[in-house]
Structures are given as structure tokens and as C-alpha cells.
Amino acid sequence: MHDEIMKLIEKNEIDSVVVLFMKMKKTQYKEMCNWLVEEMKATDDCCIRNTIAIILGDLRYNGAVDTLIQLIQNPQNANSRGTLIYALKELKCEKNLTDLIDILLNGNFETKWNMHDLILKKRKLLSKKDRKKYKKEIKKKIIALEIELGLYYDLKEKL
User: Fold this and answer.
1) How many H-runs (helices) and E-runs (strands) does the chain carry?
2) If both were cysteines, with which of 52, 86, 87, 126 could 40 make a disulfide (CB 3.0 to 4.6 Å apart)?
3) Virtual torsion, Cα 62, 63, 67, 73, nearest 10 deg
4) Residues 40-95: tens digit of each pLDDT
5) DSSP code of 126?
6) How far apart are CA 7 and CA 118, in angstroms?
7) pLDDT of residue 101
8) Dihedral, 108, 110, 112, 117 alpha carbons, nearest 10
9) Full-prediction pTM beyond 0.85?
10) Are 112 and 104 in contact (CB under 8 A)?
11) Separation CA 128–CA 136 (nearest Å)
12) Closest Cα partner for 61 from 82, 40, 38, 92?
């Protein structure tokens, strides 16, 4: 079964893998989801990792949340975080979102966009404390960006 699933993953056949999982008995399903989490954690191939992340998100397997957060925070994955963040959208990750503030504020455009969507989707589930923390950090970032823009405007006018 593992080999069959890995072959489908290598071909990026996400729907086929999801269908296979939906046909499994509960114990096998959980065992195979845990195996996928371990495969996602172990692989150095970002395409395989991203495909597994999407599958786990589609399966709504909340056991993947901690691993996804760790992978998102890993600097080695800086250029492939967007899909990992996307995979969190259907998972119960609201308690972990404050761990990703830095990714929202300092990631690349794709990462910021996916974090924006994720936070908007989960905003009603965030605690008041977490919403307040996000607002505070976003306000600091806005101030820093306004200062930076001011420098550019000033330079543009004086050239």
C-alpha cells in the first residue's frame, strides 16, 4: 500500500490518494495518515512534501498540524512555504497561528498571501489574546513600512 501511494504522490495524483484513503478502515486510515506525516517530515523533495501536505489538508488530518508548523518555520523551506500554509486552511491550527507571525510579516509574497488567507479564514476562531498579538505586530510592521516608504518618497522628490 505504501508503494502504491508513493507512486501516486510522485505523479501528483492528489485526488487518487484521497480516494484511496477514504476507502480505508478507521485504524488503517489513521496509521496511513501518520505514515504520510512522517514521509512529509523526512523528505528533502519539496514537490513530494507539498503534495503530501495538500493531501493531509484535503483529508483534514489534524495530526499533521504540528509537523506543518515546524516545516513552515524551517528556514530551509523558505522558498516552499506557501503550499504548506495552504494545507493548514482546513485543519484546526488556530492555536498555532501566533507561531507564524514572523512568516506573515517577513516571508515572500506567496507566503504572505497564504498567511493572509489563512488568518482571515481562522480569525473568528482565534482567541482575543492571539488577535491582539497579531494586531500589535502588524501595526509595528505598518509603521516600519511607512518609514521606509517615506525615505523612498523623499529620495524620489530630491533626484
Assistant:
1) 9, 0
2) 52
3) 30
4) 999 999 999 999 999 999 999 999 999 999 999 999 999 899 999 999 999 999 99
5) S
6) 30
7) 92
8) -170
9) yes
10) yes
11) 12
12) 92
**Residue 107: CA atoms inside 13 Å, Cβ hemisphere, count?**
25
Residue matched to cell numbers 485543519: 91
CA dihedral 138, 71, 125, 33 (to 10 degrees): 170
Separation CA 79–CA 102 (nearest Å): 15
**How far is residue 60's CA from residue 76's CA, in Å, rounded to a whole number?**
25
Q: Which amino acid is at 113?
A: W
For 9, phi then psi, to 5°, come to -65, -45
Query: What is the Rg, in whole angstroms, of the alpha carbon atoms belonging to the chain?
Result: 19
Query: Kindly report the CA angle at 84 between 78 and 86, in degrees rounded to 5?
Result: 125
